[in-house]
């Protein structure tokens, strides 16, 4: 399977290892006695001064980190990288936005440098979007060593994906099978077998391999996977089991179910100028709310599993490039997505699995930034909300709102809801009878027939409370 001729760049870099790097490798070896513990909990003060070089990361990859503006490693990187470089299996537990991707990508790239090999690693992610994001991270870190990646996910032409695979990339990134919604995040394997089902994969990949498992939450399913897939792993935990980050201001708002749309519009208006990720429980609701908001002049776009993969990526890119300020998403966007400019996460529909709460709110306040989350709690959600508070070990404050002001929006919001219903109906009809060569407008961007008809026009630019 090794194909040295095709991995020239990787091989060349390997041969240019400097004395400095050799010294660094030695440092890791010297430290190896301290990494034998089964569990590495948190870091001490002096570790926060460590550099990537101190962790044993090779010079060319240190330069890549530098290029990305990563001045020093994060806590999980400090804990996990040396252990992974030693060749151990790793379980990495750290809060959202804490740099877990780098914690497994750097050791994988370094191992690739040491033995240039096609189909060197397989990364499994819980969502398609995360698969693309991880590929970008590998390419950013590995650009100077010529690393080749391939993303293999559903919803994209299988023939073109087969062609990409046939070129034997170094790293293959795919979404794990639907039944494994839990964040089985990374598998580092030396194999050219690739099937999208974890149990099946485990049966066919070589026993002789290294496996990394990274997540912000440890669930029973992840523990089961750990037993099935990892060998004598070292657990690197740098956060308490279900912690949310300190710089995240978390609020809830207790409201009657029938006024959810009005409260959403009111908050978006009040915090205008921010970027929002709004989580909905169903694809239908994400679509409906996006259309409703657009009828009020708010630049909203949906992202859910009933959209084609092209539209999903398109929606994400529009939100990433800030041409849309509100992303209405289902849980396809709750795990791992790294969009630094997200200021506020709104749980429009409360998550039914409380651990999803941690992943959703973790889309803001990433990498040391601050952020805000607001969870809508209706008369039907009290128990679920109590479970969330119990999980994160915190009582959340109420988000202050003026009920009278929200109620003043009822008429305009009702009209926007009515138009949204018409648009939903139109697009369902279109989907049933698509014209030749026309892709179904599953992000609703084209359904502008009734837009801007809501009295009172746009809501934008009426911010009362800034960031
Ligand atoms: N050492 C570092 N210094 C500065 N920024 C970093 C460093 N490592 C990673 N980052 C940045 O931090 C952000 C979050 O990283 P990443 O997406 O890997 O977090 P995560 O822990 O995987 O989050 P999640 O649990 O939500 O998946 C990214 O923008 C990444 O580029």
From TrEMBL:
<feature type="region of interest" description="Disordered">
    <location>
        <begin position="421"/>
        <end position="467"/>
    </location>
</feature>
<feature type="compositionally biased region" description="Low complexity">
    <location>
        <begin position="25"/>
        <end position="34"/>
    </location>
</feature>
<feature type="compositionally biased region" description="Basic and acidic residues">
    <location>
        <begin position="10"/>
        <end position="24"/>
    </location>
</feature>
<dbReference type="Pfam" id="PF00270">
    <property type="entry name" value="DEAD"/>
</dbReference>
<dbReference type="InterPro" id="IPR011545">
    <property type="entry name" value="DEAD/DEAH_box_helicase_dom"/>
</dbReference>
<feature type="short sequence motif" description="Q motif">
    <location>
        <begin position="50"/>
        <end position="78"/>
    </location>
</feature>
<feature type="region of interest" description="Disordered">
    <location>
        <begin position="1"/>
        <end position="50"/>
    </location>
</feature>
<feature type="domain" description="Helicase C-terminal">
    <location>
        <begin position="247"/>
        <end position="407"/>
    </location>
</feature>
<dbReference type="Pfam" id="PF00271">
    <property type="entry name" value="Helicase_C"/>
</dbReference>
<dbReference type="InterPro" id="IPR027417">
    <property type="entry name" value="P-loop_NTPase"/>
</dbReference>
<keyword id="KW-0378">Hydrolase</keyword>
<feature type="domain" description="DEAD-box RNA helicase Q">
    <location>
        <begin position="50"/>
        <end position="78"/>
    </location>
</feature>
<dbReference type="InterPro" id="IPR001650">
    <property type="entry name" value="Helicase_C-like"/>
</dbReference>
<keyword id="KW-0547">Nucleotide-binding</keyword>
<keyword id="KW-0347">Helicase</keyword>
<keyword id="KW-0067">ATP-binding</keyword>
<dbReference type="GO" id="GO:0004386">
    <property type="term" value="F:helicase activity"/>
</dbReference>
<dbReference type="InterPro" id="IPR014001">
    <property type="entry name" value="Helicase_ATP-bd"/>
</dbReference>
<protein>
    <recommendedName>
        <fullName>RNA helicase</fullName>
        <ecNumber>3.6.4.13</ecNumber>
    </recommendedName>
</protein>
<dbReference type="InterPro" id="IPR050079">
    <property type="entry name" value="DEAD_box_RNA_helicase"/>
</dbReference>
<feature type="compositionally biased region" description="Basic and acidic residues">
    <location>
        <begin position="41"/>
        <end position="50"/>
    </location>
</feature>
<feature type="domain" description="Helicase ATP-binding">
    <location>
        <begin position="81"/>
        <end position="236"/>
    </location>
</feature>
<feature type="compositionally biased region" description="Basic residues">
    <location>
        <begin position="450"/>
        <end position="467"/>
    </location>
</feature>
<dbReference type="InterPro" id="IPR014014">
    <property type="entry name" value="RNA_helicase_DEAD_Q_motif"/>
</dbReference>
